[in-house]
Each structure stands twice: as C-alpha cells, then as structure tokens.
Amino acid sequence: MLGTGERLENIRRLRMWTQARLAREAGVSPTTVSGIETGKIGRPHFGTLGKLARALGVAPEELLDSREPVEQQGPAHLSLGWARETAEGEFERGLEGASLGSLDSLSRGLDAEQGRLQRLYGEFPEGSEQGRFIKRQIREVAGRSGSVKASAMVRRHRDDVERKDAHDRDIEPSTQRRTPSQHEKLLDP
Are 83 and 64 in the same domain? Predict the structure, then answer.
C-alpha cells in the first residue's frame, strides 16, 4: 500500500503539477511538499494535508497512509483515491459490500473526476505524451464509474424486490380472507 508521500506525489503528478505549483496553490512551502513526498516529513500535520488536499481537489483522507488506524483515516473506503488505487478484484469485492449511499457518492466522485480529466485533456496538444497519459486515466475512471453504476443499479433492484416481498408478506394474511367475486355472488343465491 502507498504511504502519504507516495499518494501525494501520485495525485500531484496526475494533475501534471510541479512541487512548486502545488506548494503555491496550497499555500505551503515547496520544502514541505518535497519533505512529505520523500518521507522526510513522515507524519505531516493534518492542517497541512488539508491545504494540500484542497489544492488537489481530493479529500484529506485520500492522502493518508493506508497503514494508519481506521479511526485516523476517516471514511476512506469507497473514496475516489480507493477507486483509483485498488486492484480490479479488490475493487469489485468492495463494491459488493457497499451501501447504496456509498455507491452513489462514489459514482458522483468518479463522474466529477472524469469531467476534470476531460477538461485537463483539452489543455494538451493532441498526440502529446501528457495527452495520452490523461486519456488512459479517463478510460480507467470511466470503466470504474460504469462498474459502480452497475453495482448501484443491482443494489437498487435488490432493495426494491426486498421491499416488495416485505410488503407482500405484511398484507398476505388480509388477502387470504377472499371476498366473493361479482360472478360468484350471482351464482350463490
């Protein structure tokens, strides 16, 4: 699993930013960004991580080292960072156990990330190395987004069926006391 510095560097590079640009956008020193990325600053202050995360457009939890206790990480499961870093099999297993609200939230996050990447793609000349890199990222995010949407659709359907079954069980005893049809009334004087 990636550490805080590696996560920060990956997200920064994905945006094609230098350390100096990230420092400027976040309002921290370039030395701080470099120190976190190289591991010289092993446990950066959460306020600093918040500034860096805001500048990068991610949740602060996405920058935290995944080996930290869950209480310190916050709700990182089904985060955009989790969706981007997780291997395919683990990603699908994570979706299987997720709540509908978590799936919907992740879907919105992936859609926003895809839009951001598409805007970024437009900033580079067609055929450039950066453009091809961003295009690969768009395909990856779009694929994950489709998988999340399919999982949410299945979960909605399953929830609807369960609600209908529960409703049918609740009204079943009253339907067993059948009232005669109009035709039966006419036949029975």
Answer: no
Q: Taking the model in full, what pTM does it have? A: 0.53
- Kindly state the greatest CA–CA separation across the chain: 97
**CA–centroid distance for 183 within its chain:** 58
Q: How far is CA 28 from the centre of its chain?
A: 27
Tell me the C-alpha distance between 8 and 14, whole Å: 10
Angle between helices 46-56 and 19-26 (to 10 degrees): 110
Whole-angstrom Cα distance, residue 23 to residue 175? 69
Residue 180 DSSP class: P
Measure Cα distances from 132 to 46, 98, 124, 125, 164 in Å. Answer: 34, 33, 9, 10, 48
What mean pLDDT, rounded, does the chain reach? 79
State pLDDT tens for residues 57-82.
887 777 875 443 333 333 345 777 77
Domain end: 45, 69, 93, which one?
69
Same domain, 88 and 166: yes
When divided into structural domains, the chain yields a total of 2
Mark whether 101 and 57 lie in a shared domain. no
Which helix (DSSP H) or strand (DSSP E) does residue 46 occupy?
A: helix 46-56
> Could you give the CA distance from residue 62 to residue 55 in angstroms, rounded to a whole number?
13
Residue 56: Cβ-neighbour burial (10 angstroms; 0-12, 13-18, 19+): buried
